[in-house]
């Protein structure tokens, strides 16, 4: 009796501990994961912004007595080999009322307006080629085409560096991007357009035509498909990655919880044994001083004093015949 209440009292703090550990697994682990990916994201965004600034500089160098509305291919520094750049200078009014029918992969409709207003602007084209993944890393997706960028800058000073981007917006219809050499995807895979704004926002959308994406803002775009992880075939699509991550976290928590439970079980058993041993010692002491009969039941364990007193009568019976 006395011992049993002791046992359950011992279990209460253990349960509390178990619950708190489970909470730790369920909430701390995902937030830690999110935090680590956030710090990574901000550093890669900074690198991408620094790249934009360098490419603006190098694209402007392509202008030598530039004509309006003419495309000039730029040359990138040798440590960015694989990136292609171009620049086109336009009057703001011409952009708004006529658009640009073909600027590399971009098709700019009428009704595109920059903010703040400038009289002349420069559209800088970027094709990041094999540098795409480095500056715009993907988590659960794979690029099927290089990342392309179209950014607008003030075109009044063609030797300017570190210019802020102008905010471009298409009011009459979207800017269309027809990607060249898009990689083919396995049967059943879905292709999506991905769009990165200049502040780290990422959006996915459906293709608007074969190999074509559209946007009403400036930024960087590409075509992606969801990565297929080798062990599991991808039967479901929308949000599969985040689901499997959640499942792994749950499995981790359960396994952790079970391991903890086992540990606590061992602890409880050990504590019981200790208590028992103590009780037994006490009883032995009591038996020695002739008070054994007062302490008979000790849970389901055999106390030496009890066995002695119970078996005494049977011993006498054996001697009778
Ligand atoms: C993200 O962080 C890990 C280390 O935490 C690092 O190895 C990796 O290069 C980072 N990724 C990017 C794209 O910076
Ligand atoms: C390329 O070299 C320049 C110095 O010439 C350096 O500032 C820049 O970080 C380098 N870029 C890369 C991507 O290595
Ligand atoms: C891209 O390819 C060029 C060669 O075409 C190479 O010099 C460069 O290092 C590559 N960049 C990356 C990030 O692999
Ligand atoms: C994208 O296309 C799929 C079908 O291919 C459709 O179910 C989904 O609603 C579309 N999404 C948007 C945002 O249009």
Strands, count = 14
Q: Architecture of the domain at 27-226, CATH level 2? A: Sandwich
What is the N-to-C succession of helices and strands? HEEHEEEEHEEEEEEEEHH
Shape: elongated
Q: Which CATH class of the domain at 27-226 applies here? A: Mainly Beta
| Uncertain segments | 231-239, 305-317
Radius of gyration: 37 Å
Brief rundown of the structure:
By secondary structure, the protein is of the alpha+beta class. Helix content is 42%, strand content 22%.
Notes on the protein architecture:
The chain contains five helices and 14 strands. With 321 residues, the protein is of the alpha+beta class. Helix 1 runs antiparallel to helix 4. The longest helix has 59 residues, at 2-60. It is elongated and about 115 Å long. Bound molecules: 2-acetamido-2-deoxy-beta-D-glucopyranose (4 copies). Residues 77, 79-80 line the site of one 2-acetamido-2-deoxy-beta-D-glucopyranose.
Structural key phrases:
binds 2-acetamido-2-deoxy-beta-D-glucopyranose, eight-stranded antiparallel beta sheet, 321 residues, 22% strand, Chondroitinase Ac, Chain A, domain 3, alpha+beta, 5 helices
Topology summary:
Layout: H1 2-60, E1 71-73, E2 84-91, H2 92-98, E3 100-103, E4 106-108, E5 112-115, E6 120-127, H3 132-135, E7 141-143, E8 148-154, E9 167-170, E10 175-178, E11 191-196, E12 202-205, E13 212-215, E14 219-226, H4 240-288, H5 304-319
Antiparallel strand pairs: 1-2, 2-6, 3-4, 4-10, 5-9, 6-8, 7-14, 8-14, 10-13, 11-12, 11-14
Helix pairs in contact: 1-4
Bound molecules: 2-acetamido-2-deoxy-beta-D-glucopyranose (4 copies).
Region (Disordered): 299-321
Transmembrane segments: 247-271
Keywords: Membrane, Signal, Transmembrane, Transmembrane helix
